[in-house]
């Protein structure tokens, strides 16, 4: 089994085919979308492939160390930041192909007009914490 | 197996170990070990005297740990043998535990975790799952909390307000994982109310009961948030409402108003209305005035603005809102609601979408997005 991060972006990914802001959908379409995401996570729990799913607030702050005895410097949020992560799902699956398949399904979540959003999701493999026994 | 019995016995057993001379941290560990063993053994072999069983096992665990500890330090083993039976439980043992676990030296998160384990009898795993953190993290938080309070004398009286704050935090965590924290908070507050005669303990208990009564109506079948005005009031738990109102009325007759009684009074007025339209908003505004006077809390002022909007019309509500800091959580959502009521769906839709972006949790975000969507559909047609 290998873990993959399915990353969803507020900004930074290519525009989806069905790219209508959510508040311009109908309330029923919003509900259908939310239900699809819940069902998707529940199904992956059922198959033993679900690890975690979280959404992030769009508001964030950049922070860095500013030297001994000084408080950290904060800055941002930067409107021009290209990449803004909206949330993620972590899955634990047998193959890379399975990870792609699931990301494809997640991207098919219904949007405006009840049609799939075709949203671009980023699939990133986890680096394991230790090597396997048979690398030599 | 009756897990609630185990939980109810936890503080008593802990108190007995304390009176036999065990220090709090070691006694608490021993009781936790005994609970884990009870969960394993009781289903097949239920004890005739559950409390006696727990005391015996916990004391043995304590002695084992103390012996291991002393031999590790190459000291003479001095702890041995069966103890003289401790005196029968006095109510104060449990009461002292409440105060110790909510000690002001602890951070709120630590106080919550320690209370749930030592007073509530939950396992570290259950608490960790309820707060969505790894079990090791929660175990560390609890043992650090115990170290913090270890120097504090077990019998020091505390400020009841600190205990109430902890119980209120537990209640607000609601339901996640396999433990109903709201239900657990009610159980712990009920137990506290039975031991201490204090109007704000009663006020908090009433508040919890009245809020809990509405829980079945608060979420739709698909998990969505249902706002108060749209809830199916037939699904409110009338037994809990009746109990909450009784508890509140008894507290109010003492004429020592506090923030929990005032909040419970608002909840009681909502519970009292058969339909949303019958809500006595004028009285609710008066209670919010009391609450603002008692606490000065910006959240109370925000809720007051909503109530003013209902009692005197949306313009008055917006005027009350204009006096508050716009960066307050949910300020934008309240503004959206009042603008819609004021007949300005364009502004309301924009504000709902803005409020959705800064929503503190997913159900609220989905709800606010749906509100924006609803108005935008109207505006397009």
Explain what you see.
The complex is a heterodimer of chains A (136) and B (381). Chain A has 136 residues and is of the alpha+beta class. Chain A contains two helices and six strands; from the N terminus they run E-H-E-E-E-E-H-E. Chain A is flat. The relative contact order of chain A is 0.32. With 381 residues, chain B is mainly α. In chain B, 69% of the residues lie in helices and 1% in strands. A two-stranded antiparallel sheet of chain B has the order 1-2. In chain B, helix 15 runs antiparallel to helix 16. The termini of chain B are far apart.
In a few lines, what is going on in this structure?
The complex is a heterodimer of chains A (136) and B (381). Chain A has 136 residues and is of the alpha+beta class. Chain A contains 2 helices and 6 strands, in the order E-H-E-E-E-E-H-E.
Secondary structure tally, helices of chain A: 2
Number of helices of chain B: 19
Low-confidence stretches of chain B: 75-82, 84-90
Q: Trace the largest sheet of chain B across and list its strands.
A: 1-2
Order of helices and strands of chain B: HHHHHHHHEEHHHHHHHHHHH
């Amino acid at each position: 089994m290998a873990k993959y991060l399915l990353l969803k972006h507020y900004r930074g990914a290519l525009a989806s085919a069905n790219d209508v802001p959510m508040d311009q959908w109908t309330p029923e379409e919003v509900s259908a979308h939310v239900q699809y995401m819940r069902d998707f996570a529940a199904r992956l729990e059922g198959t033993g492939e679900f690890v975690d799913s979280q959404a992030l607030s769009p508001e964030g702050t950049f922070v860095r160390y500013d030297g001994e005895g000084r408080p950290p410097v904060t800055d941002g949020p930067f409107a021009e930041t290209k990449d803004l992560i909206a949330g993620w799902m972590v899955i634990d699956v047998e193959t890379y192909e399975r990870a792609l398949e699931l990301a494809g399904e997640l991207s098919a979540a219904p949007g405006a007009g009840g049609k799939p959003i075709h949203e671009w999701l980023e699939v990133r493999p986890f680096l394991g914490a230790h090597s396997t026994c048979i690398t030599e | 197996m009756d897990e609630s019995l185990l939980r109810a016995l936890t503080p008593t057993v802990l108190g007995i170990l304390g009176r036999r001379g065990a220090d709090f941290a070691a006694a608490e560990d021993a009781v936790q070990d005994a609970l884990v063993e009870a969960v394993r053994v009781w289903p097949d072999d239920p004890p005739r005297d559950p409390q006696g069983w727990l005391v015996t096992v916990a004391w043995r665990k304590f002695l084992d740990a103390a012996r291991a500890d002393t031999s590790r330090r190459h000291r003479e083993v001095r702890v041995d043998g069966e103890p003289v039976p401790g005196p029968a439980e006095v109510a104060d043992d449990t009461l002292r535990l409440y105060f110790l676990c909510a000690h002001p030296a602890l951070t709120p998160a630590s106080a919550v975790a320690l209370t749930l384990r030592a007073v509530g009898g939950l396992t570290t795993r259950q608490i960790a799952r309820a707060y969505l953190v790894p079990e090791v993290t929660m175990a560390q938080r609890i043992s650090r909390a115990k170290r913090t309070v270890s120097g504090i004398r077990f019998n020091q009286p505390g400020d009841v307000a600190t205990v109430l704050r902890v119980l209120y935090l537990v209640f607000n965590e609601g339901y996640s994982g396999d433990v109903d924290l709201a239900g657990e908070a009610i159980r712990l507050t009920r137990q506290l109310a039975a031991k201490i005669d204090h109007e704000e303990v009663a006020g908090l208990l009433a508040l919890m009961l009245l809020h809990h009564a509405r829980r079945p109506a608060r979420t739709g079948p698909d998990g969505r948030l249902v706002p108060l005005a749209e809830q199916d009031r037939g699904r409110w738990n009338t037994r809990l409402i009746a109990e909450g109102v009784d508890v509140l009325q008894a507290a109010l007759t003492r004429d020592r108003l506090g923030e929990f009684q005032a909040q419970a009074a608002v909840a009681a007025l909502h519970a009292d209305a058969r339909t949303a339209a019958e809500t006595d908003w004028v009285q609710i505004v008066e209670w919010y005035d009391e609450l603002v006077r008692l606490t000065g809390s910006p959240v109370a002022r925000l809720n007051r603005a909503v109530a003013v909007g209902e009692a005197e019309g949306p313009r008055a509500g917006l005027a009350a809102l204009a006096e508050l800091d716009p960066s307050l959580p949910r300020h934008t959502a309240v503004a959206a609601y009042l603008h819609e009521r004021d007949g300005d769906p364009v502004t309301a839709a924009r504000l709902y979408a803005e409020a959705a972006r800064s929503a503190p949790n997913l159900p609220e975000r989905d709800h606010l997005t749906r509100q924006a969507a609803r108005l935008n559909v109207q505006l397009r047609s």
